[in-house]
Amino acid sequence: MSKNKSKYTAVFFGYFFSIVLFLLIISSSLFFSACESKEKYIRIGNQAVFSGDDKFFGEDQLISLSIAASELSPVRVSGFDYKINIITKDDEGNAERAFLIAQEFADEGVSAVIGSTFNGTTKASLPVYSEFNIPLITPSSQGEEISRGFSNFFRMIINNSQKVENIANFISEVIKPEKLIIIDNGSDYSIKLLDFLIEIFESRNITFQKRYSVNFNSDDYNILAENLLIDEPDIIFFCAKYNELADLITRVRKLNLNSQFIAEEIGMDEGITAITDSQYLEGIIAIVPEPPSLAKYSEDKKAIEFWRKYNDYVLKMKDDDISREGPGVFAPYCYDAFYILINAMKKANSISPEDFMGELKSTSYDGVVGHIEFNSNGERVDPPSTVFIIKNGVWIRYLQ
Predict the structure, then answer these.
(1) What residues contact 304, with CB distance under 8 A and at least 6 apart?
(2) For the segment 330-376, what is each residue's pLDDT rounded down to a tens digit?
(3) 46, 125 in Cβ contact below 8 A?
(4) Span 13-37, mean pLDDT?
(5) Considering the domain 161-288, what is its CATH architecture?
(6) 41-156+299-372 belongs to which homologous superfamily?
(7) What is the pTM of this model?
(8) Is the C-alpha dihedral spanning 82, 83, 89, 93 positive or negative?
(9) 3-state per-residue secondary structure call for 304-340
(10) S-S: 291 plus which of 247, 329, 370, 393, CB 3.0-4.6 Å?
């Protein structure tokens, strides 16, 4: 009897362990299935100013990133589908706040950050992101000094130095003046621009006749006009507001000086035709630091499509707090930045910055803002400007 009992006991435990093993297999299968079904996210930081008088910059950035995310999500990386989670933080346009925001993003483990709006906030944030090897892509900050010494920095827009280099290139390579006079309007912006322009000229052995600095008043402008009549330049580059440009042109034309005037972005405005005799304006040139795809009178298909998508998205939001009426100047740069970032992740087959940073650096992308490549400092390679000229009283694209 004891022998049979042992036999039955062995059979019982055999069945028992089989059932337990079966249940373990089932539960493990359910566990791993649940793990696999759990949604995965790519966390992207969105740092900008969302409060105060400049909040429209942040709104513009958020809308542009949201459009891109809606088009790209889910993202297939390393065999998994990732949804995109845009984490938005307001640095208030304040450097100290921007530093704290950067620390928060680092603690939250974002894969990359797009921002910030201003030079000061971007510069304050960058060291933190560098410490944690988090890429920072700015769509709007233009200060050249920001990028120095950081390998995790990328700039979508032309920087201040490149803007002046394009002016120098156009004057020296296209216009080729015999007698060039350059003039600033006494403002800090204008003085610094001409200082750097002269540095470029000197580095390239480009000569200019003279530099003037003038404040906006009748006496100074009369004296300057008389001096220009004596100098007899063929080209005058005047870095000034459009009303100042109009005033000086009027005075020199009345003295029968027919020098051609070249301005930059602050000198180009439709309002100049309303305050100046049209015959005096003929042939004025303005060099604007915007790519042809985005500059005035653009017929670029990608740009037009982006503007349509932006406006459609805003209408669907029905958010009374959003004050945007069409994309601002930096919106396309935000949109393209997002695409470049996700493309780098897909090429690297990873959402980890240490894996996809190299792909970011080797970017070659044709976006709304034109062709985009980065140099070793994260700057755009040869970002173009667009040149305009007044013909028959209106600004049109300059054609060489």
Answers:
(1) 298
(2) 999 999 999 999 999 999 999 999 999 999 999 999 999 999 999 99
(3) no
(4) 47
(5) 3-Layer(aba) Sandwich (3.40)
(6) Response regulator (3.40.50.2300)
(7) 0.88
(8) positive
(9) HHHHHHHHHHHHHHCCCCCCCCCCCCCHHHHHHHHHH
(10) 370
